[in-house]
């Protein structure tokens, strides 16, 4: 270990392992401000709280950066009724940006589209027109990539479905949520149902054609989002920076503890751990708590637009998302494969096992930076799970987050930031738009985003 960093590492790790600061932040976010759903009173209160915490831990230039967006409000619980082959009322929730039906609702036949991968929609074909599509939240192990809910919804709309049912593939009577469209009103109603409810519908299908009546009541409205920003100024190359961020908003049906209060708690704890060593940071480290990630990465896109002139001077963006469960924290460099050797050397110096991954994912706040060509990585738990687990359900609560996981994440993040900000070898090359597009094409993500209607303008050229 480098002698000039050994003492700092010892102090950071020691303080992290005996402090409950991260857990205190997590508890206040979850128990004090609930889901922090974008556009809500809870989100506004959480932003004020986070700004105060940034000042408390010693960050400079703490401020709000605002943006306008289309918010969505869940109103009365929807009605999901089976009218054939027998009459049954079932539990369901609407999904963000789902529109309200006409007062009498809509009635149509149910079609099972399985896991909702592209081949499933091709198999069902024209049978979906005028019908209700049901898919599971699972991306099956045999399939070569993860298939996002928004892609499944978009394919159902394109096939002419009149409503969409999203069935959880986890047990526990947990209805899943998640945005249908990003920053725009969805075309057809979308409902989340538990695995148990979905299986009951499939059993009913064995008795005959299932017809459903759906009534929804939700609305959209214009709102103002707030990113919360603070920084530790660099002592030498202050015009260059490392951006460290994560989203503080969650979905309105839960406390959103793992996704992503855990990430915000780890970020603020890392900032607190670094503040006493500010004199060591050659480059500025800017911390950002993003708003409205869950409904389309809206805070991340707004930040990149607002700071477009700075993007060439951002040497790395570190996104912290869902670090509350699972040991073995590592970094996914999203296609910057050249970071592998450098991360390995850093891990050896730190005497840590730091897993390296490099597969792009366009569904978190690093992605707007990636589109701008900025090198990015995501700090996340090392566990491998074919889905979100408790995420995006009412069970994503404070008690699911482990103190040890927050401590591990914060300590690793703080120690890594020093090296990312100071070490010349972490000056990863920015990618040109054509290179970003080619990288995403390698994983079919350009076609996926075209299908979803989420392809950023910079990648359409």
Topology record:
Elements: H1 3-18, H2 21-33, H3 41-57, E1 60-73, E2 79-84, E3 88-90, E4 93-94, E5 106-112, H4 118-124, E6 132-136, H5 149-158, E7 163-167, E8 190-193, H6 195-205, E9 211-215, E10 219-232, E11 237-247, H7 257-274, E12 283-290, H8 298-306, E13 314-320, E14 330-332, H9 339-350, E15 356-357, H10 367-371, E16 376-380, H11 403-422, H12 433-442, H13 445-452
Parallel strand pairs: 5-6, 6-7, 7-8, 11-12, 11-13, 13-16, 14-15
Antiparallel strand pairs: 1-10, 2-3, 2-9, 4-8, 5-9, 10-12, 14-16
Helix pairs in contact: 1-11, 2-3, 2-7, 5-13, 7-11
- CATH homologous superfamily title of the largest domain: Zn peptidases
Number of helices: 13
Q: What's the number of domains? A: 2
Structural class: alpha/beta
CATH-defined topology of the largest domain? Aminopeptidase
Which strands sit side by side, in order, in the main sheet?
1-10-12-11-13-16-14-15
- Per CATH, the class of the largest domain reads Alpha Beta
Overall, the morphology is globular
Average pLDDT: 96
Question: Which bin fits the share of residues in helices?
Answer: 25-40%
Total number of beta strands: 16
Instruction: Tell me which CATH architecture of the largest domain applies here.
Output: 3-Layer(aba) Sandwich
What key attributes describe this structure?
single chain; alpha/beta; eight-stranded mixed beta sheet; 16 strands; 34% helix; globular
Tell me about this structure.
With 461 residues, this protein is α/β, with parallel strands linked by helices. The chain has 2 domains: 3-71 and 222-430, 3-Layer(aba) Sandwich (Aminopeptidase), CATH 3.40.630; 75-217, Glucose Oxidase, domain 1 (3-Layer(bba) Sandwich), CATH 3.50.30.30. It is 34% helix and 22% strand. The protein contains 13 helices and 16 strands. Strands 1-10-12-11-13-16-14-15 form an 8-stranded mixed sheet, with helices on both faces. The chain has an 8-stranded mixed sheet with strand order 3-2-9-5-6-7-8-4, sandwiched between helices. Strand 5 (106-112), helix 4 (118-124) and strand 6 form a beta-alpha-beta unit. The longest helix is centred in the C-terminal third of the chain and has 20 residues, at 403-422.
């Amino acid at each position: 270990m480098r002698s000039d960093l050994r003492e700092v590492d010892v102090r950071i790790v020691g303080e992290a392992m005996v402090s409950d600061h991260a857990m205190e932040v997590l508890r206040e976010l979850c128990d004090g401000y609930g889901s922090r759903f974008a556009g809500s009173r809870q989100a506004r209160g959480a932003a004020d709280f986070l700004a105060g915490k940034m000042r408390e831990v010693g960050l400079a230039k703490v401020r709000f950066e605002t943006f306008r967006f289309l918010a969505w409000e869940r109103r009365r619980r929807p009605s999901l009724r089976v009218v054939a082959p027998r009459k049954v009322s079932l539990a369901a929730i609407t999904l963000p940006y789902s529109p309200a039906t006409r007062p009498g609702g809509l009635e149509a036949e149910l079609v099972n589209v399985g896991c909702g991968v592209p081949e499933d929609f091709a198999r069902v074909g024209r049978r979906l027109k005028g019908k209700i599509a049901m898919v599971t939240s699972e991306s099956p192990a045999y399939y070569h990539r993860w298939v996002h809910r928004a892609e499944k919804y978009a394919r159902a709309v394109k096939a002419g479905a009149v409503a969409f049912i999203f069935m959880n593939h986890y047990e526990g009577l947990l209805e899943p949520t998640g945005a249908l469209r990003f920053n725009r009103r969805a075309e057809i109603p979308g409902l989340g149902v538990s695995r148990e409810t979905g299986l009951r519908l499939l059993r009913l299908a064995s008795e005959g054609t299932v017809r459903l009546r759906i009534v929804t009541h939700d609305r959209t409205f214009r709102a103002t989002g707030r990113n919360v920003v603070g920084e530790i100024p660099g002592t030498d190359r202050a015009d260059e920076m490392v951006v460290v961020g994560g989203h503080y908003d969650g979905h309105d049906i839960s406390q959103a503890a793992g996704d992503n209060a855990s990430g915000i708690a780890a970020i603020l704890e890392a900032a607190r751990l670094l503040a006493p060593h500010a004199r060591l940071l050659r480059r500025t480290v800017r911390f950002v708590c993003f708003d409205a990630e869950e409904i389309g990465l809206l805070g991340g896109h707004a930040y990149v637009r607002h700071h477009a002139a700075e993007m060439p001077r951002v040497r790395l963006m570190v996104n912290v998302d869902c670090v509350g469960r699972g040991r073995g924290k590592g970094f996914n460099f999203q296609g910057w494969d050249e970071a592998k050797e450098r991360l390995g050397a850093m891990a050896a110096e730190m005497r840590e096992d730091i897993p390296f991954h490099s597969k792009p994912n366009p569904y978190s706040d690093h992605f707007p930076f990636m589109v701008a060509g900025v090198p990015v990585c995501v700090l996340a738990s090392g566990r491998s799970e074919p889905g979100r687990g408790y995420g995006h359900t009412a069970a994503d609560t404070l008690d699911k987050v482990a103190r040890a996981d927050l401590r591990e994440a914060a300590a690793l993040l703080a120690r890594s930031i020093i090296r990312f900000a100071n070490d010349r070898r972490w000056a990863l090359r920015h990618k040109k738009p054509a290179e970003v597009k080619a990288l995403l094409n390698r994983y079919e993500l350009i076609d996926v985003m075209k299908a979803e209607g989420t392809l950023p303008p910079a990648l359409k050229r």
